[in-house]
Each structure stands twice: as structure tokens, then as C-alpha cells.
Amino acid sequence: MKDLFYYLIFPGFLFTGALGIFASWFDRKITARVQWRKGPPLLQPLYDLIKLLGKELILPANSSLWTFLVFPIVGLAASALASSIIWLAFLFPEKGFVGDVFVVIYLMGLPAISLIVASFASANPLASQGASREIKLLLSYELPFILAALVVLIKAQSIKLGGLIFYQAVNGLGIGSFSGAIAFIVALLCSQAKLGLVPFDMAEAETEIMAGAYIEFSGPLLAVFRLTKFMMLVAAPLFLVGLFLGNVAAGPGAFLLLILKYLAVVLLTVLIRNTNPRLRIDQAMKFFWGPVTLLAAVAVTLALFGK
Hints:
Blueprint: H1 2-8, H2 13-34, H3 44-53, H4 65-91, H5 100-121, H6 125-156, H7 161-171, H8 178-194, H9 206-209, H10 219-244, H11 252-274, H12 281-304
Helix pairs in contact: 2-10, 2-11, 3-10, 4-5, 4-10, 5-6, 5-10, 6-8, 6-12, 8-10, 8-11, 8-12, 10-11
């Protein structure tokens, strides 16, 4: 019963969804300020979500129906589960399970895979174009992202997220070393792509392929994808906090500090989004397979030598 509460209420689905809605508002508000606009009210992302839930669900005539309907829910469930595991590692570092770091990395990859499969199932050529771009992007950023996480695992000699947080409480933050700082930059850039934000939003690219992978989704299904993005905006930055900025102190003050660290990473993500143009998919692939992977390899090498 307790596990069900953790994964459905706090810190799972409901809490992550609520925080994701707030993070989306924070993103839009900062974006508005950068552009010298006022920005939306606090509950605007929630209003948008409710509005989508009330819209008609239109099913493409030639789609693979069950695949089209089921895979968006798979992505939503994966993002909620990933966030729950990360939150529980912060709240109860002594618990968790060995290898939960790799499970979280796997779960955070599932929303992109679910979007790819559901988009191809729609049988729309523009959706297939967007899905094709998403595949290439996924194959580009996953390797440097895993290498960046490996830096912290090497230093802490642990593959348990709670163990990484404990290690940082004793030995200092993961970002405090040369290898950790480089790995954080790599992980932040990969996280930007994982979230599908500018400059790595080429799978959606409204001005080029009319929302691309999302073009055939409407009403409740589009709301599911929107909520998945909200939850990933919680899970991905929070995972970076766990790897590089973790804290263990108990009490409400520690939780507030954790939220502030999380918001700081979200702020960096928003600023990157608002100060860069969209890349072409070939440019993104060269970027991740070239300098980003090289930086990640350098960070791993430095970590092996204790730097």
C-alpha cells in the first residue's frame, strides 16, 4: 500500500504532474521575461491541459489503432516512474535498489521511443519525418549522456542513486571536480535534447513539418504527450541534481534547497532554449557524436585518474 502511495500520489504521478505544471509555467514565464513580455498566469499550463482533455479525439483513418492509442500512455507511465525513483532516492537515500541509475536512464528514454512508435503508427508522412528525426536524435545523445553519468558512478563506486547522493554529502558535489564539471555540461546538453527543447526540437519543428511527430495527435492523446513533457521537465533536471548537485541533509530546509537546485537547472535549460536557434538534424548528430561525445570521453578519463 505504501509503495502504491509513493508511485501514484507522493512523490509519484500526482506530485510530479503538479510540479511539472509549475515547471512549465516557470519555463514560459522566464521565456516571456527574456522576450520582454509579461507571461502567462500560474495555472495557465493546467488550463491548457484541461482544455485538451475536453477536445475531440480524432483517429487517423490508416493508423495502427492500438499502437497509436497505447504508446503515449507508455511514455507517460515511464516518465512518472522515473521521477518517482529519483524523488525516493532523495527522500530515502538508504533505500532504493542496486542499478537504479541505469533503470532511470532507461525509463527516461521511453517517452522518446513511445513518441517514435506512435508517430509511425499514425501513417502520416510528416509524422514519420518527425519520428525519423527523433530516432536520429535519440541515437546521438544517449551515448554521451550515459558517459556523463558514468563519471559520477566511477567516483562514487556505486550504481545506486542513493549511494551517489551519500557520496556527495561526504566528499563534495559531483560538479566540484574537473571531470564532474565537464560531465555536467555534457549531461545538461543531452538533457536539453531529451526534453525536445530548442535547439534540439527538430522532431516537432512547427515551422518546417507542422508539429512533425505530434501532427496526428489531438484531444486527450495530445494532453497525455503534454503531461509527459511536463513530467520529463521534472525527471531530467532532477536526475542531473542527483548526479552532480545531490544533498542528503534532513528536514524541510533540505527539501527547499533541493527544489532551488532543481529550479536552477531548469533555469539553465530555459536560457539555453531562448538563446539558440534550432539546429538541423544533421547538425545535431554531428554535435553530439563529435564534440559532446569527445568531452564526455575526456570526463570519464579524468574520473578514472581521480580528477
